[in-house]
Amino acid sequence: MSRSDTACFQVFLNALSRKFARQDILLVLDGAPNHRCHDLLLPGNISLLFLPPYSPELNPKENLWKEIREKIFKNYVLKSIDAVRTKLKQAILYIERNPKIVKSITSFPYIRKSF
Questions:
Q1: Of 15, 67, 21, the residue nearest 44 (C-alpha)
Q2: Comparing C-alpha atoms, which of 3, 56, 6, 48 is closest to residue 28?
Q3: Domain extents in the chain
Q4: Nearest to 92 by CA among 63, 62, 107, 71
Q5: How big, in percent rounded to 5, are the helix, strand and coil portions of the chain?
Q6: Would you tell me which of 85, 88, 91, 114 could form a disulfide with 72, CB atoms 3.0–4.6 Å apart?
Q7: Which helix (H) or strand (E) holds 49?
Q8: pLDDT per residue as tens, the chain (115 positions)
């Protein structure tokens, strides 16, 4: 999305809810203001779990980014925004094609125990 605000987050929540309509979703979030806005309408199949402030070691996406940097971005110097977009597309495909890896590096005990 072009911005990171409440309206964009609402669009994301709605799309996520529709895409996985038959599943319950636990979405782990940091404390960004747009994640905590009272104007959000939380879909019925999504629950939010907020991490404590200043705790990147608890944030599963940090491990996911580390995996992407190691496997896709490595030590590249990208010369244009188009090159960055190409690498990001490769990263998305890598994540989509390797769900077991994603699960193994993001399935923290506190997340599994919350269900």
A1: 21
A2: 48
A3: 1-50, 54-115
A4: 71
A5: 55, 10, 35
A6: 91
A7: strand 46-50
A8: 677 888 888 999 999 999 999 999 998 888 777 788 888 899 999 998 888 877 777 778 888 888 998 888 887 788 899 988 999 999 999 999 999 998 888 887 777 776 6
**In terms of C-beta distances under 8 Å and separation of at least 24 residues, what long-range contacts does 52-61 make, across chains too?**
58/108, 58/110, 59/28, 59/30, 60/28, 60/105, 60/106, 60/107, 60/108, 60/111, 61/28, 61/106
For the record, the structure tokens of 113 come out as 């125990």
Quick one: pLDDT at residue 114? 67
> Would you state the structure tokens that stand for residue 91, as one six-digit string?
């990263």
Determine the length of the chain. 115
pTM for this structure?
0.57
